[in-house]
Specification:
- With 375 residues, the chain is α+β, with helices and mostly antiparallel strands.
- The protein folds into 3 domains: 86 residues, Zinc/RING finger domain, C3HC4 (zinc finger) (Herpes Virus-1), CATH 3.30.40; 65 residues, no CATH class; 168 residues, SPRY domain (Jelly Rolls, Sandwich).
- It is built from 7 helices and 18 strands.
- The strands form 4 sheets. A 7-stranded antiparallel sheet has the order 7-8-18-10-14-15-16, with no helix packed on it. It has a 6-stranded antiparallel sheet with strand order 6-9-17-11-12-13, with no helix packed on it. Strands 2-1-3 form a 3-stranded antiparallel sheet.
- β7 and β8 form a beta hairpin.
- The chain is flat.
Amino acid sequence: MQDQKGYLKDRLVDKSDNFDCLICFGVARIPIECLRCGQIYCKNCQENWKNENGSYECVRCENRNMNPLNQHLMEAYVKLKYKCKCDQIFTLQDIAKHEDYCNQPNCKYFSFCNLKVSPKFKVQQVCSSTCLILDLTQQNTRDQKKLYKEIMAVLNKKNTNVNISTALVKQKSLNNSVQAPNIPIVPFIQIKNNFPPSGNQVYFKWDQNNKGDNIVISQDGYNVRLKENVYVFKSVVADQPFTKGQHYFEIQLDQMTENELKIGVVTQNTFNKNTAFCDTENGFGYYTIGKLRNGSNAHGSDYGAKFKNSGVCGVYIDLQKGVLAFSYNSTFLGVAYKNNNLTKSPIYASVALLHTAAFTLRSGLSIPSWASSIN
């Protein structure tokens, strides 16, 4: 967009003047710098200047040579955090992709899905095949035969990309005359749980009927995958709660994961799964950028290691002590939370994914030796 200016300074979470554009006075978008004095500009601002004056030109020193930021500056720039108009916080590396999504109109069933219109379904003004099928049920409540044919046409169009909740197909308007079809789960590598349960350990899986949109859970309930265009956290939750004692489970990260996960537990399983479980005070999460998250999607204490697409994250909870702790590749990271709310059952394991991510659950595991060091 040739007229696109810099990011609004008042939305920059990490307050800094180091990347201000001297033309639009915002935080530079696609930043370039003057080779003589180092002044930074939006690339689009300099393009507009060039269109009006014949060439790039530094407002400060009148030099006409510009280059992209050097590696050192770019590394600092992309890590700056910025609050979108929707109040979610992203790094400048990710905000442009999110804005493309966020600026789209709301799906006509936004009150159900909390998502934006997908370019693929721009004409229908819906976000996904799920809402397209919902739309068909609203339009064809009297003609069940036509409804059935149109639903099957949607399902058969590109079966590998359609992850549809059977529950949504079973709308009241179908009145039992159209049965929901069997939706195949896209196969991916299965990793067996070879660890025996111990003590009060709960051998849980991920709840197939209680998950964020477009999340695929394997038929055995252990493997989870999300791949979509939007940059919004989606959550899965355990099908069985912890009610007493000590418990330990592991999340094995997949190499396809492009963004860090939020891993932990939640004290109720009725939250909106199209958000991160730890956005509310009921969720206690470890955001694997090296931060904790409880009741906020943007703020939390430093904790643990940084990782996203390799290794194993261990999760330990003691309901008697109200303790939640994590490990990475068997290395104890310390106590993350000690909270009275973690002594009150039921408590559910939960993980939040963003954009493109996958992992495998191992539940019912023996309590690790490092847990004995926790007071």
